[in-house]
Amino acid sequence: MIQRIFKCAVVALLVLFMSVYTAKAQDARANTSNNNGWLMYFGNHKFTNRLGLHAEVQLRRYEFLSDDQQLLLRTGLDYYLKDNSRFTIGYAFVETHPYGEFAVANAFPEHRIWEQYTTSQTIGKVKLAHRYRLEQRLIGNAATGEFSNGRYENRFRYMAKATINLTKWEKPLFLAVYDEIFINFGKDVGYNIFDQNRLYGALGLTLSSSLKLEVGYLYQVVQQRSLQLNPSVRHRIENNHTLQLGVFHTLSFVNN
């Protein structure tokens, strides 16, 4: 009961924040849109009753698959609880390339430390998952492409995902939908408190008890920085349309 109240409170606060943010965001904006393609691998591999390894690779491309957009490598240590939940702490390396109308001057690196809590529950035929993530981001200098003279930011992310089996086959098809909001905080954030929002829908196929595929569409609203534009234009908004192919792999080396 306490956990459910906590989840509802978080969602309500996020909705309230977005309402206030939208009402007050009267500054000049510049808008653009991009078409992207993301190829992704997610692995969670349990090697004891309590511990496991998270491994993740994402190759993000601009103009669907033709040009570089971003490379993301993420790993972490999972600690499993008994109630379909787990804590994770890990490290991520990100390299972002120039792309689109609001392109940075050079590709630049980013190092992240991250912590998260995930939990899931099943209500009838629907599996609901909640993910709460904190990130400590050391972001390189886009003007030079080097890590030196970069900046530090914190970011909070909340994702709610629903999965529904569509067939009763041995390898069933399923529908997956989620929404995730990103909020920046820290002294270097400036006007970019709202970072982005991701709305996603996909058709998935269960290949085995340890392997699933998802093919989906992601609508991503990103607020970029305005360093190269007129200072009066505080918000550069990307409305990105992304096709995604995700591979989800789980292994357990524990004898039950």
Description:
The protein contains 1 helix and 11 strands. It is globular. Residues 15-26 have low confidence and may be disordered. Helix content is 9%, strand content 67%. It has one helix spanning 2-24; strands spanning 28-46, 51-62, 67-80, 85-96, 108-123, 126-141, 146-165, 173-185, 194-208, 211-224, 233-252. The protein is mainly beta and 256 residues long. The chain has a single domain, classed as Porin, CATH 2.40.160. The longest helix has 23 residues, at 2-24. A hairpin with a 4-residue loop joins strand 1 (28-46) and strand 2 (51-62). An 11-stranded mixed β-barrel has the order 1-2-3-4-5-6-7-8-9-10-11. The two termini are 29 Å apart. Pfam families: DUF2490. Keywords: Signal. Residues 1-25 form the signal peptide. It comes from Chryseosolibacter indicus. This is DUF2490 domain-containing protein.
